[in-house]
Amino acid sequence: MRPLSDQPTRELAGGARMPVLGLGVWQMAAGAETEQAVEWALEAGYRHIDTASMYRNEQTVGAALGRSGLPREQVFVTTKLMPAHPSAARELAKSLERLSLDYVDLYLIHWPLPLLSARLWRQLESLQERGLAREIGVSNFGRHRLETLMPGASRMPAVDQVQFSPFHYRRRLLDYCLEQGIVFEAYSPLARGQGLHDPTITAVAERLARTPAQGHAPLGDPAPGRRHPQVQPQRAHPLQRPTVRLRARRL
Predict the structure, then answer these.
(1) What's the CATH code of the domain at 209?
(2) Residue 27 lies in domain
(3) What angle is formed at CA 203 by the lines to CA 202 and CA 207, rounded to 5 degrees?
(4) pLDDT band at residue 192 under the 50/70/90 scheme
(5) Closest to 178 measured CA to CA, from 221, 122, 134, 148
(6) Number of domains in the chain
(7) Would you name the residues annotated as active-site residues?
């Protein structure tokens, strides 16, 4: 993987730059296996690690970050709030303690709860003002949920992280996020391996001289400042893609 200075990033609303490729640790149990996966990812050049309080492996991620020896500012760390908890401040404090960090780069509301999301969002705004989260955003929010969140908000979410792949292509939500200046972040971009043997994906990958896994990445977010074209994979450029989060796989 290329050095950090050469890796493509997306600038978020607060000015932080988020690497477009990240390692997610969903369904990875706390312990040595997950710690090793994060260490290997960092050694390979990944600089974006995504976890959540619900994953119950923040402490393991924090241990791997500490063992890496990398300066804090060189790793972009995302974690997420379980919205059933009434106090975002208390939950972020717990996450920071488990991660052994003073701040996170991105703090997300993990999923929408109709009666709580707006109140929790105002709490996230306060956490950002206090410097405990450089950027704030949401996860699994559709267009309606985003529109409902906005009336009482003082700022837009920097990121909406949702499931997105050639098999789960949410075009209207993608276009809405582009219009609103919300960075669109995909999880499960490889459709949990579904597309690695799909005939269309493998054909596109061959035309691009890439692997099927690499062939998924260009199908999405255009470069900043450009409108979304009709999807034409044979013409896509690897930098014209959504920010994507890859999940560690057990070996």
Answers:
(1) 3.20.20.100
(2) 4-247
(3) 115
(4) confident
(5) 221
(6) 1
(7) 55
